[in-house]
Amino acid sequence: MMKTLTLTNGFSLNTSGQVAECVAESPVPTTVALMPGWIPHVKPRLLVKEGDAVNGGAPLFEDKRNPVVTYPSPGGGVVERIVYGPRRRIDEVVITLDEEERWERFEPVSPNRIAATDPDTLRHMLLKGGVWPLLRELPFRDHPDPASRPAHIIVTLGWAGGHLALPALALEGEEMAFQNGLAILKQFCPSVHVITPAHTGELSEPILKTVTAHIRGGYPAGDPGHYLYHIRKEPSENRSWYIEGQDLVALARFVTEGCFYPKRVMAVGGNGATVCGHVRTRVGAPVSSLDPQEKRRRRIGGSPFSGLFLPATGYMNFFDKGLTLLPVGDEEDLFGFLRAGYTRPSQSRTFLSVFNKKPLNLDCGMHGEGRPCINCGRCAQVCPVAILPQYTMKCMVAGEVEEALAHGLLDCIECGLCSYVCPSKIELLDTLKTAKAQYRKERDG
Q: What is the pTM of this model?
C-alpha cells in the first residue's frame, strides 16, 4: 500500500528554465570521462595510464580504502589523458572512444533466477563489474561497505525542484529492468522502498505499482535521507542504502546481460539554458554535448542548491542526472538598492517577489558580502530534517564534535537550502559536509 508523506519545511522557487517534458537524442561523443576527484570520500588508485586501451566497463581506478571497489570505464577506447588537480588529485580520466567499442563481458544471471541467486554471488558480480558504486549508503552518501547489511534500501525516482530527469521519461521502456533491479535489491535486504516526489510525469503502470511512498512538498521532497528521517525507528537504521532509478536499471541490466550499461537520460534546465529538455546520452558525457553554447555562465551538475560546478570543457559526473545552467550573476545592478525586489527570487518575504507568481530568473550571484551569523533562524525554518544548522556549524567551528552530533549533524541531507537562505552568506552546506566527512574519517580511523 502506497503511503504519502508531506515535506513541511523545505523550499522551492518558481524559477524560469524548467525542464521540458521531451527527450532528444545526443550524438555519440568522441570522448567520455570518469572524474574521481569529484566523487565524495573516494581515494582513487589508478589502474590505467595514458595510452592504454580499455574496454567499456573495465576498471579505471580502485578505492584505496577498499580495493575490491572499482569504478568502470564509461566507454571502450584509449586513455587519452589523465588530468590532475591540486595536491595531485585525479580530476579526469578521459577516454577517446573507438568506432567499434568493445565491452567487458561477465556471466549473466537470468531474470527468473535472480530470486534463487545467493546474495554473495550477486555482491561479487557487482564488485567485479564495477557496478557496486551505483549503490550508496546514508548518512555519508558513500558507496556501502560490501560486507555491510542495510536496514533499508531506498529507490529514488527524482527530487522535487532539482532540475533532474523526470522518471516517466528516463524509465520509459525500462519497466522490466526496473523490476529486475528491485528483485536484486531484495536479495540484499527485504525492506525496499520506492519513493517519488509529486511531479514525476505519468509513470507507467508497472513502475507505479512498485511505488511505496509519495512525497509531497517542495525541494528536496524525494531525497532518500529525508525519507529515512521519517521512517526510521532506531539509530541502527541510519546505515541504509539508496539508489537512483536510472542507476537501478543500469545495475539490473548488468546482472541480466553481463555488460556495463552506460546510457542515461539527463535533464537540461535553468534560465541560462538555450533549450530546456531531456537528452538521452551516457555516463561521463562531455558537458558540451548537453550545452554546446560557449556562453559565460555556470554549469551545475544536478540541483542548483547542492550540485557541483562543472567546467564548460569538462564531463558529467558519475551520478549526474541533470545539468543546470545559470548566469554568473556578477553584473552590477544599477540602483538595485532602490528597487523592492519584485523580480528577485528569494525565500525572504521582505521582497515583493513574494507576490510575483511569474517564473523568476535565478543566478549565481551572492547579492551581498559574507558576515557573521546573526541567528535569524532562517536556515532552521527551511531545514527538511529539523536540525539547527547555525548551531551545528558553530559547534564544529568551536571543535565541539559531540555537541554537533547532538544537534543532528548526521541527519543533514546536504540539500543546500541553509546556504541559499542565509542572509549572512555563510556556506553552511560546505561546513556541514566537511564536518560529516571529518567525523567519519576519525571514527573509521
A: 0.94
| Three-class SS state of 65 | coil
Q: Which of 75, 96, 101, 82 has its CA nearest to residue 30?
A: 96
| 178 and 171 Cβ atoms separated by less than 8 Å | yes
DSSP single-letter state for residue 337? G
C-alpha cell at 150: 542495510
Asked whether 239 and 220 are in contact (CB, 8 A), the reply is no
Question: Cβ contacts of residue 359 below 8 Å, gap of 6+?
Answer: 14, 15, 16, 17, 18
The grid coordinates listed for 413 are 541531507
Nearest of 190, 234, 197 to residue 214 by alpha carbon: 197
Reading the block at residue 109, the C-alpha cell is: 544471471
CB 308 within 8 A of CB 317: yes
Of 242-246, 414-418, 439-443, give the lowest mean pLDDT range. Answer: 439-443
Residues 6+ apart with CB under 8 A from 319: 39, 244, 247
Tell me how far apart the alpha carbons of residues 429 and 389 are, in angstroms, rounded to a whole number.
Answer: 9
Whether a cis peptide bond, with omega within 30° of 0, leads into 139 is: yes
